[in-house]
Write a structure and sequence with these properties.
The complex is a heterodimer of chains A (113) and B (111).
Chain A: E1 5-7, E2 10-13, E3 19-24, E4 31-38, E5 42-50, E6 53-57, E7 64-68, E8 74-78, E9 87-94, E10 103-104, E11 108-112
Parallel strand pairs in A: 2-11
Antiparallel strand pairs in A: 1-3, 3-8, 4-5, 4-9, 5-6, 7-8, 9-10, 9-11
Chain B: E1 9-13, E2 18-23, E3 31-38, E4 45-50, E5 55-56, E6 61-64, E7 70-75, E8 84-92, E9 105-110
Parallel strand pairs in B: 1-9
Antiparallel strand pairs in B: 2-7, 3-4, 3-8, 5-6, 6-7, 8-9
The chains are: A mainly beta (113), B mainly beta (111).
Chain lengths: 113, 111
Amino acid sequence: DSGVTQTPKHLITATGQRVTLRCSPRSGDLSVYWYQQSLDQGLQFLIQYYNGEERAKGNILERFSAQQFPDLHSELNLSSLELGDSALYFCASSVFGGKETQYFGPGTRLLVL
Amino acid sequence: DAKTTQPPSMDCAEGRAANLPCNHSTISGNEYVYWYRQIHSQGPQYIIHGLKNNETNEMASLIITEDRKSSTLILPHATLRDTAVYYCIVRDGGSQGNLIFGKGTKLSVKP
């Protein structure tokens, strides 16, 4: 158990819908990362937050957004969902968001029908 | 793009040492070598990391060549539960911390 929690574990929805994925980092960690893993693209970095502020962006679509709240939990919002958004979404956390080790949560499996 | 090259797959007999190679010929002086693994579709699990010296922890050993252009992850006594995809990642020591995953090595531990 990494100490990072993610909810829900599974999510099934329809095209065009909007969903919210939630992540709680390890106790004491200030930085949260979101990654997407699809069959054809592998694990890809989406976005990073540090202490409530966006720090880095990766291959995140404009339909996707994220935020980190004062209690340090984070939410990833996916809107206007397409079939291709079906994937595993992982959250990771680290203490400061630099070179220290990241610890991953168990992921949310999203299926868009 | 990932800065590492790993074999796509390897087999290992249960109880034997698993030696997973990684080439990172363009690594620079302040870049670390990290290893993670992913068992089935679970979240990636941190294994070990190093800069120049060899490292050992309760899970594995990491051997980095003197020129730092390659490394080997060693699982000393592989078990069936070690079957996973192993990712070798070269990581900048700077302020941006995101990981860049390649395709990794699929290790199959066989009885």
